[in-house]
Design brief:
about 300 residues; alpha+beta; Pseudouridine synthase; Archaeosine Trna-guanine Transglycosylase, Chain: A, domain 4; five-stranded mixed sheet; 8 helices; about 20% helix; globular
């Protein structure tokens, strides 16, 4: 019989396999860790694999900071074939001969580098009147979607053997790689869809740091918990400050405290014992609690 779920705090870097949803991977990891509260930091489609950071317990309070972080992908696309979803899970809509060369591909990529606009795909989790777009798509309803600005920081050809093309993409959060593949195909005049996608990085985390579900299953409970990273790894890009116990207690009670800081903004706060207490807003010599770790958990 499975023991009662425990208080588990931390971040697990999971290497999600192809063929399952991000939520299914999360629930499996949650079960293996015997955790109560869990969440992920941005989904990967079932056909995609790679880095999927999972948050447990108090770490879920800081998941949004990784959700908004830059992402790094390896994308495989097939030129000459378009699908209803822009990926291998959709129905084939068209086929065309591919006359584009590798030189043609290299010539169009600059159009998709830097700040660009994308129209979100209908098969996405974006909401319209409280319902995800994919529900409308499944019902055959097309919703008008305004274009959104995203940033492609780097777009490089890894392999080019038309109709198969492999790209390395470093981009801002909110970028749809399926849409990028479709738009590149349209620019080449033959259409395209994404056939495989691997997330190589998210924020400061890399796929090489991640653990598979099979690896987790082979470990005992103590070994699994030892793989968890502390909650503050999600906000390591922010500046840090050390506080005296009395100051930390004041923040935990919801009060602002006087404190001279280097510059205003969001700051990681620690006690002098190097215990992470959460995030605080610094402004005009005052620190105000933004998101704090619970001191007592049941």
């Amino acid at each position: 019989m499975k023991p009662a779920r425990q208080v588990v705090d931390g971040v697990l870097l999971l290497n999600k396999p192809v063929g399952i949803t991000s939520n299914a991977a999360l629930q499996k990891a949650k079960w293996l860790l015997n955790a109560r509260k869990a969440g992920h930091t941005g989904t990967l489609d079932p056909f995609a694999d790679g880095l999927l950071p999972l948050c447990f317990g108090e770490a879920t309070k800081f998941s949004a900071y990784l959700l908004d972080a830059d992402k790094h992908y390896r994308a495989v696309q097939q030129l000459g074939v378009t699908t209803s979803t822009g990926d291998p899970e959709g129905e084939i809509l068209s086929r065309a001969e591919v006359h584009a060369s590798c030189a043609d591909l290299e010539a169009v990529l600059p159009r998709f580098t830097g700040e660009i606009e994308q129209i979100p795909p209908m098969h996405s989790a974006l909401k319209h009147q409280g319902r995800p777009l994919y529900e409308y798509a499944r019902a055959g309803i097309e919703i008008d979607r305004p274009p959104r600005k995203v940033t492609i920081r780097s777009l490089e050809v890894v392999e080019c053997a038309p109709p198969r093309v492999v790209l390395d993409v470093q981009c801002s959060a909110g970028t749809y790689i399926r849409t990028l593949a479709q738009d590149i195909g349209a620019a080449l005049g033959c259409g395209a869809h994404l056939t495989a996608l691997t997330r190589l990085g998210s924020g400061g985390f890399k796929l090489e740091q991640a653990h598979s579900l099979a690896e987790l299953e082979a470990l005992d409970a103590t070994q699994r918990h030892a793989l968890l990273l502390p909650a503050d790894c999600l906000v390591a890009h922010l500046p840090a400050i050390m506080l005296e116990d009395a100051e930390a207690e004041g923040l935990r009670q919801g009060r602002s405290i006087a404190h001279v800081t280097a510059e205003p903004g969001l700051i990681r706060a620690y006690t002098t014992a190097n215990t992470f207490i959460g995030l605080v807003d610094a402004d005009a010599g005052q620190l105000a609690p933004r998101r704090l770790i619970a001191t007592q958990q049941t």
